[in-house]
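Board work, copied verbatim: Lipoprotein-releasing system ATP-binding protein
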Amino acid sequence: MVLQLDKLNKIFNAGTPLENHVLHDISLQVSPGELVALVGASGSGKSTLLNVIGLLDVSSSGELRIQGHLTQGMSEQQRTQLRSESIGFVFQFHHLISAFSTLDNVLMPLMLRYGKPSAEQTAYGEYLLNEVGLTDYMRQPTNRLSGGQQQRVAIARALVTRPALVLADEPTGNLDTQTADEVFGLFERFNIEHQCAIVIVTHDTRLSSRCPRTIRLTDGRIVYDGASADSDGVNAHL
Ligand SMILES: Nc1ncnc2c1ncn2[C@@H]1O[C@H](COP(=O)(O)OP(=O)(O)OP(=O)(O)O)[C@@H](O)[C@H]1O
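↓ predict structure ↓
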């Protein structure tokens, strides 16, 4: 199992007048190679859940295992190591470093972990940029790229460490429909070719229905976990 959550809760500002119980007894499992859409109304807790799963935030109670490793009780250093070994992130705003070349942005997670990337690692970064159709832009700074191209760089960057799990928070949120389709197609392709599990937060029902599995949150609770819409797009939960 790549991901196992058991009765996970998240309470912001616990014990204060601003207490906000955002995630309620979340239990779920994700197997290697699954493509899962995480959906729900604004404020339902999707980003909070993704941040906890991605070890960017801590839960208040319950258990979270990543590739079998129980994360509760880990030191910050252990969490950072597990995160950099196992998880790739793609956000709506891609957080690229505009002064760096496209290739150096892709190699950044490796540089942060190992220092100067090896020839093999650099070749893999180049391969990924080729896969997302950006071979010609490898040596150019990323601020010359369009929004869709920058999101492709972010996808290549998320995959460069060969993570078992990719977490994507509204990765197509700021893209036009056609570009969003293309970027989503890359997730589908990498999911099949690299067998990485992907959890993708999206408001776009066209895209969530292309994921085999949908998890829906309402007010911080899982209210649906199962097959996404059928080919007719007819499904009660959507
Ligand atoms: N750092 C924080 N401190 C206190 N409350 C927070 C914090 N972060 C999020 N929340 C609250 O948690 C709830 C869920 O927010 P979250 O961003 O996870 O929802 P979401 O489903 O991702 O929404 P959206 O689709 O709009 O991004 C909201 O009530 C929000 O105000």
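The chain has a mean pLDDT of 91.
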